Amino acid sequence: MTAFRRTLSALSQYPSAVAGLAIIAAMVLFSIYIVVAIPYSEAIILWRGGEGVWLENPRTAQPKWVNLFPGVNLPETMILGPAGESDDASVKKERQVVSEEMTDVITTFTFDYTADAFPQEISLFLTSEHERKRPLVSLTWLTPDGREIRIADVTVEGPVTVRFSQEEKLERRLDGVRPEIGLFADPASDAEDPTPLKGTYQLSAAGLIFEDDADVDARLVVYGQVYGLAGTDHLRRDLMLALMWGMPVALAFGLLAAVGTSVSTFIVAAIGVWFGGFVDAAIQRITEVNLILPVLPILIMIGLFYSRSIWVMLAALIALSIFSSGIKTSRAVFLQIKESPYFEAARAYGAGNFRIIFLYLIPRLIPTLVPGFVVAIPSFVFVEATLAVLNLGDPLLPTWGKVLSDARVNDALYQGNYYWVLEPAALLLVSGLGFAMVGFALDRVFNPRLRDL
Amino acid sequence: MTDAALPLQPDAASVERPKSQSTLSRVVQYTGLRMIAMLITIMIGVYLTIIIANMGGHVDNIRKGYIREQVALSVGFNDEFKNMTSEERRAHIDKLVALQEKRMGLDQPFLLRSFSFLWGAMILDLGWADNMSSDSGSRQVRNIILERLPATLLLFSTSFLINFLVGIFVALYLSRNYGSRLDRLIIGLAPTSAAPSWFYGLFFILLFAALLGWFPFGGLVAAPPPESIINYALSVLNHMVLPVIAIFFSSIFLGIYGQRTFFLIFSNEDYVDMARAKGLSDRVVERRYIMRPTMPTIVTSLALSIIALWFGSIILETIFNWPGLGRLFYLAANIFETSVIVGSTVIYAYLLGLTVFFLDIVYALIDPRVKVGGNQGGHV
C-alpha cells in the first residue's frame, strides 16, 4: 500500500499523468454508471431494435449543439399529439356533427417554426377506432401568411402513416418542390434557394367518421435536422447510446487484453529464465516465429470463419500476443535478478520451481510490468475499433468502432456528416491519450534512468 | 552498455584485425544461416495460417471447387460426351472428380495434405480465385496479389523512409537541445502514437479532403488516369500525400521519443566526454561516439515499427481506397474469397520475414558488439 501511495505521489509531479488519471477515473465512474443505468440486454435491444424503437428520430441528424455555432439554426424535431395524451395547447381535437351519419373529428396542430433550415421529413401517424366504415381524413396545411394547402385525403384502416415527402400529388401541387420544403418555403424567396417562412403553422386533420363510436387520433412528427447531444445515424438510432455503451466495452476490452497479454508474457518469460537451457531456447524461438505471424490477417480469418464475437476476438488476440516482443525485455530483467541470493535461500529450504517463480521471481518485478501494461491498453482499444471498421465488429454490442464503421460505410465524410466520425474518434482519442499519458509517466517513475531525461 | 566503448580500446581493435581477412566468407555464412532460420520461421508461420484457415475445411473447399469446375468444363466442352444424358454426365463428372481428388491427395488425412499445402504456399503456388480476378484478367491468386504489391510497397517504403530519416535527425537535434521548448512539446506529443495511422487518416481526410479540398479523398491516381508519365506520377504523388502524412503522424513522435532517449543515454557515457575533451568536433562525436552504438537499438525498434506498418496497411489502405495488398485483403474478406485471404496472409508472412531478415543483416553489420559469424545472432 505504501508503494502504491509512493507511486501516486511520484505521478502527481507530472501534469500529464494527473490529467490522464483524471480521464481514466472519469471513464471508470461513467462506465459503472452506464452499465447500471442501461443494462446490457436493454442496450442491445435499443441498439438492434430497428426502426421501431427510433421511429420518431430523424435520420443522420447532427447533434443539437451545432445550433450554438453562429449562423447555424437548424430545426429540432417536433412531436405533437395525440390530443388528450398531453395537455398541450398546440393540439386541439373537436367533434362537429355534420349530419346524422357523419361526424367530423378535427385535430388541429399549431406550432411555431423559427429555424433557418427546412425539416428533414414530415410524418403524420393516424390511428382509428371503427367497426366497418373506415374514416376519411383530409389534411390541410395553413401557412403563417394565410395560404391554405391541401395535403391529402386518407382512409384510415388500422395505423396509417402519412409521409408527406411521398405524397406525389402534393409535390405536383407545389410545382415539383419537395413537400417538406414547399410547405415551409417563403414564397418571396428565391425558388432556386428557398428559405423557410418563420411563424405559426397549422395542420388540420379533419376526419370524417361514419359511426357513432368511431374515432380518429393523429400524431404529427416534424423531423428536424438536429437530435440529442450526439445526433443520430442512418437507422435513426441515437448515437448517444453507442457512445455511452462504447465506453465500458472499450475499457473492458482494453483492460482484459492488456492484463491477459502482459501477465501471460511475463509468466512465460519468468519460466524461461528460471528453467533456462532448452525451455528458454524454445521460448526464444517461438517468440521469433510469433513476431512474423501476421496477427491482424489471422484475426480477420478467425472473424470470418468462426465467430466475430468480441470475446472470441479477445481470446485470439491474447493467445497471439503471449509470445510477443515484450518477452525479450522482461527476460533481460529476470536474468539480472535471478542471481540474487534469496533464490539460493529459497532453494536451500526446498521450495519448488513454481513456488519460486510465482512467489519470489514474478512479484519482485511487477512494478516493471505496470508501465507497459498501461501503455498497452489504448492499443488494444484501437484493435477493437480496427476490427469493427473492417466489418468484423461484435454483431450485437454498440461500440465506438461500430459507429466509425457505420459512418465509413455510409460515406459520412463525403456527405458532410462530420459529427458521426468526430464523436467516436474524439472519445477513442481522449481515452487512448489518458492511458498513454499515465503509462509514459509511470515508465519514468519506474525506470529511474529515464527520470532525468 | 559500457562495452560499447570499443573505439577507445585500440588494443582490442588491433587484436581483432588479423581475423578480418575472411570477413566476406563469414558474412556469407552468417547471411546464409540467418536466411535458413528465417525460411524455417516463415514456414512455421505459413503452416499455422494453413491450420487456422483449414479448421473449417476452407482450404479443401477451394481445391475441391476448383477441381469440379475444371472437370465440368472439360466434360462440357468435349464432343465425346455430347450424347450422354445429364444424369450419365453427372455420374461421369463425379467419377472424374473423385479420380482427380485422389490424384491431388485430397482423400489423404489432413496431416499429410497440410504439408503439400505448405509446399504450395512456400513456392507461392497459391491456387485460383473464384470471384476475383486481377486487372489483367488472371484468376491466379499469385497474379492478383503480385499486381497489388507495388502499390503497397510504394506507399509503405516511402512513409518508412520519411519516418526513419526525419526521426533520426529530429531526435539528434532534440538530444542536442534537450529541455528546450520544442523538446518538451514533442515529448508531450509522444502519447498520440497510441492511435493507429488509419485513425489519423480519418481526421486528415476530413480536414484536407472534405473541408479544404486540397487533396483527393483516396485512390491511387485521378480518374481517368493521366496519359503522360510525368502527370501520372504527379497524380500518384498527390494521392499519396494524405496516407503518408497519416502514417508519419501516427508513429513519428513515439519514434523520436525513443531515439532521443537512447541518444541521451549514450551521450552521457564517459567515452563521449573523453572524445569532447580531446577536442573532436560535435559532428564527429555525434557520428562516431553517439550514433554508432545507438544504431542497433534503433534498428531493433525500426524492425518492430515496420512490422506494425505492414499490419496497419490493411485498414489504412481500406480507408484511403489505396489499391494495394491491404485493400485486396479487405475486399477478399468481404466476399469470403478464401484463396485470396490465405494467399495474402502467406505474402504478409513473407514480407515480415524478409523485413526481419534484412534488418538482421543490417544489425549485424552496424553493431560493433555482434561479431559477424559469431553465434549470437541479431536480437530481432
From TrEMBL, chain A:
GO terms for cellular component: plasma membrane. Signal peptide: none annotated. Keywords: Membrane, Transmembrane, Transmembrane helix, Transport. InterPro entries: MetI-like (IPR000515), MetI-like_sf (IPR035906). It is found in: Cell membrane; Membrane. It is a multi-pass membrane protein. It holds the Pfam family BPD_transp_1. Residues 247-439 form the ABC transmembrane type-1 domain. Coiled coil: none annotated. The chain crosses the membrane at residues 17-38, 239-259, 295-322, 418-442. The keyword GTP-binding does not apply. GO terms for biological process: transmembrane transport. Belongs to the binding-protein-dependent transport system permease family. This is ABC transporter permease.
From TrEMBL, chain B:
PROSITE patterns: ABC_TM1. It is a multi-pass membrane protein. It is found in: Cell membrane. One of its GO terms (cellular component) is plasma membrane. The keyword Cell membrane applies. Keywords: Cell membrane, Membrane, Transmembrane, Transmembrane helix, Transport. One of its GO terms (biological process) is transmembrane transport. Residues 149-363 form the ABC transmembrane type-1 domain. The chain crosses the membrane at residues 35-55, 110-129, 149-174, 195-217, 229-257, 297-320, 340-366. Its main location: membrane. InterPro entries: MetI-like, MetI-like_sf. PANTHER family: BINDING-PROTEIN-DEPENDENT TRANSPORT SYSTEMS INNER MEMBRANE COMPONENT, INNER MEMBRANE ABC TRANSPORTER. Belongs to the binding-protein-dependent transport system permease family. This is ABC transporter permease. It comes from Caldilineaceae bacterium SB0664_bin_27.
